[in-house]
Amino acid sequence: MTIIDTSDEILQQSAAAMATKVARRELSPVELVDASLARIAEVNEQLNAFCLVLGDEAREAAKAAERAIMAGERLGPLHGVPIAMKDLTPTRNHRTTSGSRAYRDFIAPDHASIARSLLDAGAILVGKTTTPEFAYSGFTYSPLWGITRNPWDTSRTSGGSSGGSGVAVATACVPLAEGSDMGGSVRIPAACCGVAGLKPSLGRIPFTILRSTFETMAHFGPLARTCDDVALFLAVTQGPDEADILSNPQAIAWPETLACDPRHLKIALSVDLGFYAVDPDVERNTRDMADRLRALGAEVEEISLGWTFDSVLAWDRRWNVYLATHYGHLLEEHRDDLDPEVVRLIEKGNRTTAIDLKRTEFVATDMWEKLAAVLARYDAMICPTLARPVARADQNERSAAGGFDADGRYIGNTMTCPFNLVSQCPVLSVPSGFTADGLPSGLQIVGRRFADLSVLRIGKLIEDSWGGAGFPSPRPDRDQ
What we know:
Elements: H1 9-12, H2 15-23, H3 29-47, E1 50-53, H4 55-70, E2 82-86, H5 113-120, E3 124-129, E4 141-142, E5 146-147, H6 163-170, E6 176-181, H7 187-193, E7 196-199, E8 219-224, H8 227-237, E9 266-269, H9 280-295, E10 299-302, H10 310-327, H11 331-334, H12 340-351, H13 354-377, E11 380-384, H14 397-400, E12 427-434, E13 440-447, H15 452-465
Parallel strand pairs: 2-3, 2-6, 9-10, 9-11
Antiparallel strand pairs: 1-3, 4-5, 6-8, 7-8, 7-12, 11-13, 12-13
């Protein structure tokens, strides 16, 4: 069953358009927030995108935003625009559970840096979105909040771990939602839900919610229906910030438009990254995007990247150690409260030696040398986001993927986690089409180190090829 988009045209606008109309007094923040809350009420029971809805607080903030307009005060670039934040990210005086029963009663004492930036820009927080426990999975399910479902087909997963944010944007509850990405947790739900999602380059957005500020796989990123809104989110939240020693000291100076001349672009195409077994529908859609770029005048050449399954194993090892480091202390008192899969991964992390962990850098170095050689010759590389069609909502990583085909290719679900090992490279996921079952698929656009603007410009070209009104929304009457 598909959840139909609201007919309310207010919510179909981009965040940029909303902010512009609010500043011109053509649209009221109160009207916007009321529409957003009504849309959440309409879809949330079926989809479970939000675990916390801040109705009264959001309405009061909207009234204050309207008073500021009438008083002629200086307005931020997101003034009056409703947004959502992931339940992993602390927001002051709100319950922030990280999807875990162990933290079901935790009230955040202060905003994370990214939340403060968004709110200082005038955005209005309408709710917190669901995440699997500790954002560990590409499927949004937790013992605390249950399953978050896909708006294109409620029997399918929304992806994860920012699955609630992906659904919130795809169903027009909000035009912008925050996510986090340590293995694809922004890009996976973007692909599953048919929206855009960016893993920015390392340090582009300060990451301040961990005890360690030296975690190189961790990124905050936006989910949105247009690349212009992704850029707006980055403009508002980008660093530097001394609270994050890895934050990038050189902020992007954003141009007025993402438009570029595709005739000057040279793009590499890798359908399989060297080792994935890619579904025929996904491959067809990926090649169709390459053809669209060629039709616009870009030069697109298929290349052999030469990565191996070792990249997945290296990421898995780092991820298990991350979980054990940050959440292993919970096993003593909360083992029975935790997702059994989280417990299993923590215990694997506990068994990993320091030498085994350090050796993952050898794999990452080999990966970088191969990718760097490609990016020295090309402006960007494109590849699928998911190797398979969107999985069922009752599955998980182990049941949805695994093993190898007759040709020795990995039957994996997501093609995202390797890029968190070469984390200085920005990676944008945009919709690439639909499978035979009418489910969205995604295309990753991989840029040179810190070239976030470049991947957004290529994403904008693909977005415009859909018709120039943003990426498709879930509608059963859509010609797919």
